[in-house]
Specification:
Strand order of the largest sheet: 1-2
Radius of gyration: 44 Å
Distance between the termini: 128 Å
Low-confidence stretches: none
Shape: extended
Strand content: under 5%
Length: 622
């Protein structure tokens, strides 16, 4: 049956070729092998180099930094040699030589005696340690013995062991003389060992006391070089060169255990912690620059704080810049842009009102207060008297540190200017020194003001906006909706924001304020002389706080309100009373009774209605 079916399918009896044995697969296998080998090569390259771009960056950094150090070293050597020839440094050298000569005889005696003591200790120490260990073991066996007989036997062994004798072989000091040999009991051995140790401690202490003047002068010499040398000295540069010679290409990371934070930023930004100022112009790449504010790193050690808490970004990522800087859409904390570098300060310093070196941070804080945000949005550090006093004291400390740093910078600038080979650079450095002197003078004036303020500080901050209960007495009715609709159209410098209310909402708010305000009558004031008033306004000190005019025509201070166009909004009778006594109120508020008090409350007590600085007590509660 099967044969018939085959014959029907192949009536000619022609045998069909086997596709496996009759067709070559070498081409397909070759292509597959090449693809496999290519994939393997690509995978190895991607694993070793593609996913580790920091390796090439570290090699490039070592090459560029080494070349820069070799260029800097001769120049620094010349500068350091010139400093060492200065009269101040030579004087310190002479003082150092005199101090060393004064203590040299006694130091030689101490060193000889210490050498002899050390020779004896080297001979006694191994013998004493072995003897003490043996007797200690016997003492333990005596303590754990179960019977009095066993204890007595162990005690005899201890006494026999203490009798020794213990042989101490003392080799001659010069190695050629006659050696000594001591035969000592354990007690004698112990006394001699302890006596040598005690004498050694006395001599070491005496040696340290003798060298105190020498060490102090050496510190002064090092400090002189540090204060006057612009940059590093030769030893420090040599140390950096040795560091580059032994630099290990590896993944470098910071692990902050407290927050379980891992930052690998320094794998690419290798120069960020270097003591020399490294710029993009010097190193050729922006990634190799040093931190622009080394003083900030001294109080924010990266080993303790890491990098990403302050700067943002993904500190763990190292495969490419986009991921490392957190610029991909899946990372929630991207690297801060230059204009927002100080945003990271808020994470720790959210309670600080003023932060040294953070101009944008401080400006934001100032705007938050000056623009009236604090009136609605409560935030830590605002509207508190204690905060004000703490900030004054903190500012005093910061200014003192700044003044000291400026003094050091002045000395460095003058020294560098004297040694500059370029007249333009010398003039720049002299100008820098003069600028710092002027700045220190300003700091001194500021410190005097702050110290006086800290002594007498009694701050009472009022709310951003005024009390609106006297709106009906103070303002013109038709002016209120104009102001509520757009305060900046009337007064561009006002703190009050524009709420973009509808016309109906503006009218409703205006009606509410007018109808709920006090309705007490104001005393009618006689008309005044505007010409005489202008003369008084300009000569009696009003312009010290207030200003008049708008735009470029504004004159006066910025502490208090601008009084231009005040006649458009204020009732004349109220304005006269306000100028005469700003603290006078139509109905003062009593915090105990939690209500406004008026003439009727004073009349009940038989008192005249009078409220000012000298008469500020409530007639009802006193």
């Amino acid at each position: 049956m099967e044969r018939e079916m085959v014959e029907r399918e192949n009536p000619m009896g022609v045998e069909e070729p086997d596709p496996i044995t009759s067709r070559s697969m070498s081409g397909a296998l070759l292509i597959a092998s090449l693809v496999l080998v290519g994939t393997l090569i690509w995978a190895l390259y991607d694993e070793v180099y593609g996913r580790r771009p920091w390796k090439a960056m570290q090699r490039e950094f070592v090459e560029r930094y080494t070349a820069y150090l070799k260029r800097v070293k001769p120049r620094q050597a010349t500068t350091e040699a010139a400093l060492k020839q200065s009269p101040e440094y030579r004087k310190l050298e002479q003082e150092l030589m005199a101090a060393r000569q004064a203590v040299a005889p006694r130091l030689r005696e101490i060193d000889r005696e210490l050498a002899e003591i050390e020779r004896q200790l080297e001979a006694i120490r191994p013998v004493f340690q072995d003897a003490r260990a043996k007797i200690g073991a016997l003492t333990y066996e005596w303590e754990v013995a179960g019977s009095e007989r066993a204890k007595a036997r162990k005690m005899r062994e201890i006494e026999e062991a203490k009798r020794g004798p213990f042989r101490v072989r003392l080799i001659a000091a010069d190695g050629e003389g006659k050696n000594e040999e001591w035969r000592l009991t354990f007690d004698e051995l112990q006394r001699r060992f302890l006596a040598l140790q005690e004498r050694k401690a006395q001599l070491v202490s005496e040696r340290a006391r003798l060298l105190e003047p020498v060490v102090e002068i050496e510190k002064k010499m090092n400090q002189y070089l540090q204060d006057n040398l612009v940059g590093l000295d030769q030893k420090q540069i040599d140390g950096l060169l040795r560091k580059m010679e032994t630099f290990k290409i590896e993944l470098k990371q910071i692990h902050v255990q407290d927050g379980d934070l891992v930052d690998r930023c320094i794998s690419c930004h290798v120069g960020i912690l270097e003591p020399l100022p490294l710029t993009e112009q010097i190193m050729g790449r922006k990634a190799f620059v040093s931190h622009p504010n080394p003083a900030l790193l001294r109080i924010h050690n990266p080993e303790r704080f890491g990098c990403s808490p302050c700067h943002g970004g993904n500190g763990r990522a190292t495969t490419n810049v986009v991921k490392a800087h957190g610029l991909n859409k899946h990372w929630l904390w991207p690297l801060y842009k230059p204009e927002n570098y100080e945003a990271g300060c808020v994470q720790c310093h959210f309670r600080d009102r003023v932060l040294e070196g953070a101009e944008v941070f401080n400006l934001g804080r100032d705007l938050y207060e000056l623009k009236g945000c604090v009136g609605c949005h409560r935030y830590e550090g605002y509207d508190r008297e204690t905060d004000a006093l703490l900030e004054v004291r903190k500012t005093i400390r910061q200014l003192n540190l700044e003044r000291a740093e400026n003094e050091r910078e002045i000395r460095r600038a003058l020294r560098a200017a004297d040694q500059a080979t370029d007249d333009r650079e010398a003039r720049r450095l002299y100008a820098l020194a003069e600028t710092l002197r002027v700045k220190n003078s300003q700091i001194a004036d500021r410190l005097e003001q702050l110290e006086l303020q800290a002594k007498y500080l009694m701050q009472d901050q009022k709310k951003v906006g005024p009390n609106l209960k006297e709106v009906r007495l103070k303002l013109r009715k038709e002016w209120i909706p104009v102001w509520i609709e757009n305060p900046h159209a009337f007064r561009p410098t006002t703190k009050m924001p524009r709420f973009r209310l509808s016309r109906e909402e503006v009218q409703a708010i205006s009606a509410y304020l007018w109808q709920t305000a006090l309705r007490d009558p104001l005393p009618t004031q006689p008309p005044g002389d505007p010409i005489r008033g202008r003369e008084l306004f300009e000569t009696r000190g009003c312009l010290a706080c207030h200003s008049i005019g708008e735009g470029a025509q504004t004159i006066g201070g910025t502490f208090a309100a601008n009084l231009s166009r005040v006649g458009e909004k204020v009732n004349y009778d109220y304005l006269v009373r306000w100028i005469h006594n700003p603290r006078e109120r139509t109905r003062p508020y009593c915090p105990n009774e939690r209500r406004d008090i008026g003439p009727e409350d004073y009349a009940k007590r038989g008192l005249p209605f009078r409220f000012d600085l000298n008469h500020s007590k409530c007639p009802s509660c006193g």
